[in-house]
Amino acid sequence: MAQTLLDVQGLQTHFHTDGGLVKAVDGVDLKIEAGGILGLVGESGSGKSVTGLTIMRLLGTKRARVAGGRVLFKGRDLLTLSDREVQALRGSEIGMVFQGALTGLDPSFRVGSQMIEVIRRHQGVSKIEAHRLALESLDLVGMPDPERKLRSYSHELSGGQRQRVLIAMALSGKPDLLIADEPTTALDATVQKQIVDLLIDINRTLGTAILMVTHDFGVVARMCRTVAVMRHGRVVEQGTVNDVLTNPQHVYTESLMKAVPRLHLTDEERSVPRSERRLFELRPAVPPEAATATTPGKETVHAGK
Predict the structure, then answer these.
(1) What is the pLDDT of residues 130-158, one digit of tens each?
(2) How far is residue 250's CA from residue 91's CA, in Å, rounded to a whole number?
(3) Which residue, 65, 86, 235, 300, shows the most beta carbons closer than 10 Å to its own?
(4) Where is the ABC transporter domain (predicted)?
(5) What are the residues facing 37 on neighbouring strands?
(6) By CB neighbour count within 10 A (0-12 exposed, 13-18 middle, 19+ buried), where does 305 fall?
(7) CB of 194 within 8 A of CB of 184?
(8) d(Cα 217, Cα 59) in Å, to the nearest integer?
């Protein structure tokens, strides 16, 4: 059985707002095995991104407070570590790809200077070594002409290339865990597939475990082995991708799946008047990848209520 890499137990993150207390994360339990891929899925406001930021201890506001729970990474509770200790883990053992390729890079600085700064801060290497690692990371994510890209500004790159830069920065320290927060947001369908395939390849070749934060069940079916469905700060359903997609147990999971449009209809479905066809188009269809996405014995699944 694979070793547990990340074990989130009863995590609670609260925000103190002018309108009162908001329980953004309300008792979340998650497990990721070494080399595994867990999809954390839910609609906007479900608490999935806040869960990722809490794990990284990057909430960034005094109004936010971790009210309870544990985040065990390799057996150490990240919530009890000092700021210096957490800083040492970020980038080297845990990497994060933040949401939004367009806003993830500072347009005032060249890509290379930003990558080198991040690498030096987290790894404590020389500028020359950081430059070498930046090139190595860009090559790892399939960036064409990486030396030229280091000299470029973010506006000179396509959306897919900017996302590859962000992934390269997160992978520059060869982390054991990568938290990817909606990495395909605002990208067209073709580029989305390329980014998802890139993450799958990184998982297979480097053995990097991935927490994939997304609202897209198509992404979950394609790349994840297990999935946790979040609503109102809680995990309402959790299991293998195949089990959840073929036999959802919670009405919310079912409603999310019904919101996925279908591109391919049968002749019978096409005979239905377009005004009524929406019912067929919303009916969930499990992609073929879902049937093969689960690796028996790789994941320990804990049901969340």
Answers:
(1) 999 999 999 999 999 999 999 999 999 99
(2) 36
(3) 235
(4) 6-257
(5) 210
(6) exposed
(7) no
(8) 26
What single letter denotes the amino acid at residue 66?
V
**pTM (predicted TM-score):** 0.82
Inter-CA distances, 200 with 175, 210, 293, Å? 15, 9, 11
Q: What is the dihedral of CA 213, 190, 160, 227, to 10 degrees?
A: 10
Rounded Cα–Cα distance for residues 100 and 34 (Å): 27
CA distance 51 to 228: 12
**260 pLDDT higher than 90:** no
Domain 4-292's class?
alpha beta
In the block, residue with structure tokens 């993830």: 104
d(CA 110, CA 134): 13
The amino acid occupying position 205 is T
Q: What is the number of other CB atoms lying within 10 angstroms of the CB of residue 41?
A: 24
The single residue listed with the structure tokens 């019904």 is: 258
Residue pointed to by tokens 């990340």: 6
Tens digits of residue pLDDT in 165-176:
999 999 998 999
- Nearest CA among 172, 178, 157 for reference residue 101: 157
In the chain, where the domains are located: 4-292
Q: Residue 83 and residue 63: Cα distance in Å, rounded?
A: 18
**Which residue intervals of the chain are DSSP H helices?**
48-56, 83-89, 111-123, 127-140, 146-150, 159-171, 189-206, 217-223, 241-246, 251-258, 267-270, 274-281, 288-292
Per-residue model confidence as pLDDT tens digits over 154-164: 999 998 999 99
Q: CB count, 10 Å around CB of 88?
A: 15
- What's the mean pLDDT in 43-64? 93
Residues 6 or more apart whose CB falls under 8 angstroms from that of 90 comprise 56, 96, 122
